[in-house]
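Duplicate of #3305? Posting structure anyway:
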């Protein structure tokens, strides 16, 4: 089954936002409330932007390479998401519990790649064997 890239991007954005909001709400409820530092609308809009950007880049990558060596794209996505954890680690947060902000923010960097790597075969052209 192959779906259109725009539908795929919406699907991944929805799943990422849903899991991200669930984590956001549970963290704010049980531990610390960082909703003033990172509002939920920024989380959703970031996942939507990243989903459409990654889907566009993937379609261009498949167009150029002919769906060969997809591991290069997947490895790049994983490494980029891993290196972006430096952003919350180095962030200067003016919050009463600011030292716990990296603990709160780092998991958000892995939610999108998790869903992308699970579902990307839905838009990958399959080779005939």
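Output from current build:
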């Amino acid at each position: 089954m192959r779906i259109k890239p725009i539908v795929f991007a919406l699907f991944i954005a929805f799943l990422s936002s849903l899991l991200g909001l669930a984590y956001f709400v549970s963290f704010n409820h049980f531990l610390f409330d960082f909703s003033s530092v990172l509002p939920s609308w920024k989380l959703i809009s970031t996942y939507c932007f990243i989903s459409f950007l990654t889907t566009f880049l993937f379609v261009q990558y498949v167009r150029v390479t002919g769906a060969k060596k997809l591991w290069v794209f997947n490895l790049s996505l994983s490494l980029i998401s891993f290196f972006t954890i430096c952003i919350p680690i180095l962030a200067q947060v003016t919050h009463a519990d600011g030292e716990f902000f990296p603990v709160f923010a780092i998991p958000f960097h892995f939610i999108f790649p998790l869903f992308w790597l699970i579902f990307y075969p839905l838009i990958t052209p399959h080779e005939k064997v």
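Confirmed duplicate; merging threads. The chain has six helices and no strands. The two ends are 16 Å apart (CA to CA).
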